[in-house]
Design brief:
- By secondary structure, this protein is an alpha+beta fold.
- Helices cover about 15% and strands about 20% of the residues.
Length: about 280
């Protein structure tokens, strides 16, 4: 393992190419597994240290293209999905897969590509109530409190409140009082003053092609501005990744050891043969 001090403009994709890793998903997962909780990142933060793996098994081969696409990420599925339906559809199932997909299709898929190219939401997870957010001017990481509906759940057939879909109108956080702790924009002689969370309008960069009761759903790239001046982004989507036995059989053992270092993955593959159960990570 080696350390890298991130610069402005760095992304996991660009760093994966720079350090000749197989894909950005490996770098992101490796860092988030080995770093302190406060340094978990969805995208590199300038000035922060990122942990870079040096295992040869995780390096890209010289003959492979260096252009990393979202299809290389952990949640990749086997088939690309094309855009077929019109926009602004409302999911008519109470429980759906947690990655951007056709609203009525229960199979977990990648976000669809538009005719003009890939959507910025491609490969991103929808956000559920137990997901957490961060403010670039705060110190704590509150969860969501869904108030816009009590109808639709992502990737949960039992209707647990933790998996309620978060929409553009869900502005309340848990805890409601001073959700981000202290505010860096309010220095005083005794330290930073408490956060006075005041959302400026609705969530932005939402996935407009999937709606719950007419409200666009949030994915990992969604963001919200606070009237005080902070920028609020998604820290964790809150879902539980679901993997079928066919994905287990095709998975690269060396890569999976990075994600689950305490699991003997070859033995796990053998255990899954002949079963129809789903396995969770």
């Amino acid at each position: 393992m080696k350390n890298y001090n991130t610069q402005k403009g760095d992304t996991f994709s660009s760093l994966a190419r720079q350090f000749k890793l197989k894909n950005e998903g490996i770098l992101k997962t490796y860092h988030n597994l080995h770093c302190p909780p406060e340094d978990v990142m969805q995208e590199p933060v300038p000035g922060k240290t990122i942990f870079i793996p040096e295992d040869p098994q995780l390096m890209a081969e010289e003959t492979e293209p260096q252009n990393i696409s979202a299809s290389s990420q952990e949640e990749t599925t086997d088939d690309a999905v094309s855009e077929e339906n019109s926009t602004e559809e409302t999911p008519n199932e109470e429980q759906s897969s947690g990655i951007a997909e056709e609203p009525t299709n229960k199979e977990e898929k990648k976000d669809k590509k538009e005719d003009s190219g890939s959507s910025p939401h491609e490969g991103k997870y929808f956000i559920v109530q137990k997901g957490t957010v961060q403010c670039n001017q705060g110190f704590k990481f509150p969860k969501f409190k869904v108030t816009s509906h009590q109808k639709h759940y992502w990737n949960d057939g039992e209707g647990q409140a933790d998996y309620l879909a978060v929409t553009e109108d869900d502005l309340q956080l848990d805890p409601t009082a001073q959700p981000f702790g202290q505010c860096k924009l309010k220095p005083s002689s005794g330290g930073y003053l408490p956060c006075a969370y005041a959302p400026a309008g609705k969530w932005q960069k939402t996935y407009e092609k999937v709606k719950v009761m007419g409200k666009s759903c949030l994915t990992e790239i969604s963001e919200l501005m606070c009237s005080t001046g902070g920028k609020i982004t998604i820290l964790k989507h809150g879902q539980q990744s679901e993997v079928g036995k066919s994905q287990v059989a095709k998975a690269n053992t060396q890569e999976q050891q990075v994600y689950n270092p305490v699991v003997d993955f070859d033995e796990f593959k053998e255990d899954t043969k002949g079963t129809d159960e789903l396995y969770y990570s």
